[in-house]
Amino acid sequence: MGSTLCICSRGVITIENKRYLFIQKLGEGGFSYVDLVEGVHDGRFYALKRILCHDREDRKEALHEVEMHRLFNHPNVLTLEAHCMMEKGPKWEAWLLLPFVRGGTLWNEVEALRDKNAFLSEDRIFYILHGICLGLKAIHDQGYAHRDLKPTNVLLGDDDQPLLMDLGSMNHARIEVNGTRQAMAVQDWAAQRCTISYRAPELFNVSSSCVIDDRTDIWSLGCVLYSMMFGEGPYDMIFQKGDSVALAVQNSISIPENNRYSQGLQSLLSSMMVVNHMERPHISTILNHLEVLHPNVDGQATTRI
């Protein structure tokens, strides 16, 4: 679980026998905070994610996220540098030390361009999408699914290299549901851990006899691609207006008419956004289609707009 962590008055912390200087806060979510710290031993910047743990179940979930990180050593999955558990009175905090990625998230880039009435070029979309797919394939090949893929969970590193992060919702890719009680348990879990506007249709109304697999991520991948193409996710506005996303995802998606992107890219998007998950392609098929549509996608250089 890592070595004892101490905080000194000058903003120095120690994790696994290495010291880090607190620089500034980067952001916060519902149950976690992210700080920028600098390694005293190497001068590198890191992102320190602090997860608030109110009880034993929270601690278990935080350690699950650590375990998921430890499964991967892949250029498109964010690396966990170190971690520890810190006791704070009756509560605990799980501290995850992660690389600091200056480019921010994919959503930061999409939003910044949208505010300037600009969009990602097709070359950039292919390149970023290819990297996301490689990261997903690494996860799926280990028998897991991400379950919360969205633009805010994709970091953009140097040269637009995408890195999948926030692995706390990951679980086994294949879930066999037998019975109403299990179906409700899966549905309740998804409601808590899978962002509603990127959640696959099969997770809204879970059948009492079904198999859910890694193709929940393919639906979410389609939503991410849509956001790169059109500046927002296909169901973001529906959620913001308070309308039913659960109802909206049961209908075939309508792709806005545009001359900005090729028919091949639009067809790729349509192939991901299939309501019946058994008819969706697996990640290997998506990668094959990507590489046929854009043969040099892996080695191309990208230029930010």
Automatic annotation (TrEMBL):
Keyword ATP-binding: yes
Top class in the EC scheme: transferase
Enzyme Commission number, as recorded: 2.7.10.2, 2.7.11.1
Gene Ontology MF term list: ATP binding; non-membrane spanning protein tyrosine kinase activity; protein serine/threonine kinase activity
GO cellular component: Golgi apparatus; membrane; perinuclear region of cytoplasm
Record membrane topology: Lipid-anchor
Classification via Pfam families: Pkinase
Residues spanning the signal sequence: none
Keywords: ATP-binding, Cytoplasm, Kinase, Lipoprotein, Membrane, Myristate, Nucleotide-binding, Palmitate, Phosphoprotein, Serine/threonine-protein kinase, Transferase
SUPFAM superfamilies: Protein kinase-like (PK-like)
SMART domains the record matches: S_TKc (SM00220)
Gene3D superfamilies (alphabetical): Phosphorylase Kinase, domain 1, Transferase(Phosphotransferase) domain 1
Subcellular location, record wording: Cytoplasm, Perinuclear region; Membrane
Keyword Heme among record annotations: no
Catalytic activity: L-threonyl-[protein] + ATP = O-phospho-L-threonyl-[protein] + ADP + H(+); L-seryl-[protein] + ATP = O-phospho-L-seryl-[protein] + ADP + H(+)
Reported function: Membrane-associated protein kinase that phosphorylates on serine and threonine residues. In vitro substrates include DRG1, ENO1 and EIF4EBP1. Also autophosphorylates. May be involved in secretory vesicle trafficking or intracellular signaling. May have a role in regulating stromal-epithelial interactions that occur during ductal morphogenesis in the mammary gland. May be involved in TGF-beta signaling. Able to autophosphorylate on Tyr residue; it is however unclear whether it has tyrosine-protein kinase toward other proteins.
Name of the protein this chain belongs to: Serine/threonine-protein kinase 16
